[in-house]
From TrEMBL, chain A:
<keyword id="KW-0732">Signal</keyword>
<dbReference type="InterPro" id="IPR050490">
    <property type="entry name" value="Bact_solute-bd_prot1"/>
</dbReference>
<dbReference type="Pfam" id="PF13416">
    <property type="entry name" value="SBP_bac_8"/>
</dbReference>
<dbReference type="InterPro" id="IPR006059">
    <property type="entry name" value="SBP"/>
</dbReference>
<feature type="signal peptide">
    <location>
        <begin position="1"/>
        <end position="24"/>
    </location>
</feature>
<keyword id="KW-0813">Transport</keyword>
<protein>
    <submittedName>
        <fullName>Multiple sugar transport system substrate-binding protein</fullName>
    </submittedName>
</protein>
<keyword id="KW-0762">Sugar transport</keyword>
UniProtKB/TrEMBL annotation, chain B:
<dbReference type="InterPro" id="IPR051393">
    <property type="entry name" value="ABC_transporter_permease"/>
</dbReference>
<dbReference type="GO" id="GO:0005886">
    <property type="term" value="C:plasma membrane"/>
</dbReference>
<dbReference type="InterPro" id="IPR035906">
    <property type="entry name" value="MetI-like_sf"/>
</dbReference>
<keyword id="KW-0813">Transport</keyword>
<dbReference type="GO" id="GO:0055085">
    <property type="term" value="P:transmembrane transport"/>
</dbReference>
<keyword id="KW-1133">Transmembrane helix</keyword>
<feature type="transmembrane region" description="Helical">
    <location>
        <begin position="26"/>
        <end position="52"/>
    </location>
</feature>
<keyword id="KW-0472">Membrane</keyword>
<dbReference type="InterPro" id="IPR000515">
    <property type="entry name" value="MetI-like"/>
</dbReference>
Length: 430, 315
């Protein structure tokens, strides 16, 4: 019956799609004042679990203390359903007034003219004074501010202090080159060989697209062009993957067979590898999965040991172009983005609060303080905005992971990987 | 002809027709919930998906007609070839083994005098829960490198499982999933058991008197008389096998991995439709599946004429 169900789902989507019709939005003069007793009704949607929903309820109660006559009709879905529902609404020009967006979808929606340019409210109803320019730029598409980040993080290298202490290996430093990293991995492998289970330096760290983006950024090269095509060629991908060919071919990385078996944990989260490369917010997950608070964080190594880093927005707030209440919506965005009380409710669960005032309001857990300390330490190195990701990016990232797994199993070589990645991107980005 | 026309009573005729119309209407009225469901939820969407399979459709923008392009793309898509291969292997190996297991256990149960009800329920149980998410998770835990399967294997002198166990070895994930489906032999087993009860015992007794051994009795009495049931089970299980999704999705964490070794057809279809938003392409894949399953069913029906014997049949 799977075929039937699939067909039914496709058909339902088709029917909903046909119901879509476009209507031109009337230009709206952005207000600069919003009286606290103004009456309005707006809809607001986010993704997440019940815990997050509870926090949003608290935050919106605070909002209503300030603006008692603005009724906020709430709705939330889990991540997957969220996009199915939003895509359908987008097709019917019926998006909620205010909605939570992800960097991977922002460009796609903005390109279709689904969002209001919040730039018109900047300095008026929307205060973005506390935001770094590089961060605001990650919410800017075609010169319009379409998303205001609620939190941010940055690419990092995490290390398990418990393991390294046990093996007597010194912690990695913030000035390591790629050669240092390779030597370090071998050093951990050697120290951990007699351990049961065997401890490794790291899993193959060319296995994810964000790592490739980081590497491109160091070279000052773009990843995607303005119109969403790849700004790199197959040779670039091959070079990147071959940079760790020795470690890979000699079996010096954490074995892929075991990564697959432990999935979704893998080497680092399973407590059997010392290093992990990911966005800084994920330190909370690392601490809870490994069951230790002794996780350190430094910049991921680069060719020359110096770094170019970028603000990576973790959640953005957008206002729909079809909103009947743009002013009230902008006020809600401003409130959620800036209110220290709201930041105190969410902590760093939406990423580190972008403003100093917001970060100060958070009662820091251990993971928050590791994350915030790292973000403070790299502040002067954040000179870039995270690249705007084209529509279809999510699938490309997933494809990179799948192909890399085939590479590790020896089914394909790096050239075949690059070739298949490009034929896939051809379809997804074309 | 002319005589019958004259003999007809127009008034009575009309009354009869009216009564017939009334009962037809009532019949449709009772059928209507099902008909609504069929046209609204099955036939309509299927026709829509047939149309979408000739379009480029990403959910966002209106579908654009591109003729047979989606179907042409299937021919050069290496992932599609891999998905077709994995699914074919699963059907070709999984179904016969499962049916053989079902028949073997059904025959053992049929001959047992005591506790038949208990054993029947016990063996049937896996097919009720086997398709569930929790069993797939347990199955995965059993086959990783320090799982129960590796431990038992070592007791019997097997070499210690490599890193990751069966789960991490692309050569062994498909056998692992085939074992999972074979273990769910309960449903065909119950049907076989019912079929075995229909075989008259006099036939066995007569054959035994004539000196036929157990093997001979099996091939010359049991199999021919059971062939309609065998055919039914074969058809059902084959179609069922083409639709494997849940267990593969759970065991590979939705990736079709490791190294595409569990990239079943329906899983790949799901990726294209709901991850990559290529609904046109996914629809084309769905229709290819419908056609292939249809053709295989047709082949089975055709072949059944030569090996399925219905009692009372002269052939």
């Amino acid at each position: 019956m799977t075929t039937m169900k699939m067909a039914a789902a496709l058909g339902t989507v088709a029917v909903l799609g046909l119901a879509a019709c476009s209507n031109g939005g009337t230009p709206h003069e952005a207000a600069t004042e919003f009286a606290p007793d103004t009456e309005a009704e707006i809809t607001f949607t986010w993704w997440g679990n019940d815990e997050r929903a509870g926090w949003f309820e608290e935050a919106l109660d605070l909002f209503n203390e300030e603006y008692p006559n603005v009724e906020v009709v709430r709705n939330f879905n889990p991540w997957d359903d969220y996009w199915t529902a939003r895509n359908t609404e987008a097709a019917g020009q019926a998006l909620p007034d205010v909605l939570m967006m992800d960097a991977g979808f922002l460009g796609e929606y903005a390109d279709k003219g689904l969002f209001l340019d919040l730039g018109a409210y900047q300095g008026g109803l929307l205060d973005t004074g506390g935001y770094a320019d590089t961060l605001l730029e990650s919410g800017t598409v075609n010169d319009q501010l379409v998303g205001v980040p609620m939190g941010y993080n940055a690419w990092s290298m995490m290390y398990n202090k418990d393991l390294l202490d046990e093996l007597g290996v010194p912690y990695p430093t913030d000035d390591m080159t790629l050669d240092d990293l390779e030597a370090y991995v071998l050093q951990v492998n050697q120290a951990g060989a007699a351990h049961d289970p065997k401890i490794y330096g790291a899993s193959d760290y060319t296995g994810g697209f964000p790592g490739f983006i980081y590497s491109r950024m160091q070279e000052g090269e773009p990843v995607f062009t303005e119109d969403g095509a790849p700004a790199f060629d197959e040779g670039d991908v091959v070079d990147y993957l071959d940079s760790v060919a020795d470690l890979r071919d000699n079996g010096d990385f954490y074995p892929v067979e075991r990564t697959v078996a432990l999935d979704p944990l893998g080497g680092f989260l399973g407590g059997e590898a010392a290093l992990w490369f990911n966005f800084s917010t994920t330190v909370a997950q690392a601490m809870s999965d490994i069951g230790t608070e002794n996780i350190g964080m430094v910049q991921a190594p680069t060719e020359n040991g110096r770094h170019v880093l970028a603000d990576h927005p973790s959640m953005l707030l957008s206002v729909a172009a079809n909103s009947d209440e743009p002013d009230a919506s902008a006020v809600l965005v401003d409130f959620l983005a800036n209110s220290p009380e709201v930041k105190a409710i969410f902590g760093a669960s939406l990423g580190a609060p972008p403003t100093d005032e917001g970060r100060a309001a958070v009662e820091q857990s251990t993971s928050d303080s590791v994350d915030f300390a790292y973000l403070d330490a790299i502040e002067s190195e954040i000179t870039e905005s995270y690249p705007l990701l084209p529509s279809g990016y999510g699938s490309i990232e997933a494809k990179w992971g799948e192909l890399h797994e085939q590479l590790l199993y020896g089914d394909i070589d790096t050239e075949q990987l690059a070739e298949e990645l490009f034929s896939e991107m051809d379809m997804l980005l074309g | 002809m002319a005589g019958t026309t004259i003999a007809r009573d127009p008034v009575r005729d009309r009354a009869r027709r009216r009564a017939r119309d009334r009962s037809t209407r009532a019949g449709y009225a009772f059928l209507s919930p099902w008909l609504l469901g069929f046209f609204g939820l099955t036939a309509g969407p299927m026709i829509a998906s047939l149309y979408l399979s000739f379009t480029d459709y990403n959910l966002f923008t209106a579908p654009t007609f591109i003729g047979f392009e989606n179907y042409q793309r299937l021919l050069t898509d290496t992932n599609f070839a891999q998905a077709a291969k994995v699914t074919a292997l699963y059907v070709v190996f999984g179904t016969p083994v499962k049916l053989a297991a079902a028949l073997a256990v059904a025959m053992l149960l049929h001959n047992s005098r005591r506790g038949q009800g208990f054993y029947r329920s016990a063996y049937y149980l896996p097919s009720l829960i086997g398709g569930s998410v929790s069993i797939a998770i347990v199955w995965k835990a059993m086959f990783i490198d320090d799982g129960i399967v590796a431990q038992i294997g070592q007791v019997f002198g097997g070499s210690p499982a490599a890193d990751g166990g069966w789960v991490g070895d692309p050569g062994r994930t498909l056998p692992m999933l085939i074992l999972l489906t074979v273990w769910q032999f309960g449903a065909p087993m119950v049907i076989f058991l019912a079929g075995l009860k229909q075989v008259p015992t006099e036939m066995y007794e007569a054959a035994e008197v004539d000196g036929a051994g157990p093997v001979r009795r099996f091939w010359n009495i049991t199999i021919p008389l059971l062939s309609p049931v065998l055919f039914f089970n074969l058809l059902l299980e084959t179609i069922h096998a083409f639709q494997i999704f849940n267990s593969a999705f759970i065991i590979s964490n939705g990736s079709g991995g490791p190294a595409q070794s569990t990239l079943f057809y329906t899983l790949y279809l799901y990726f294209r439709g709901f991850r990559d938003f290529q609904m046109g392409y996914a629809s084309a894949m769905a229709w290819v599946l419908v056609i292939v399953v249809g053709l295989i069913s047709l082949l089975l029906f055709r072949s059944s004429k030569s090996w399925v014997h219905y009692s009372g049949d002269d052939k």
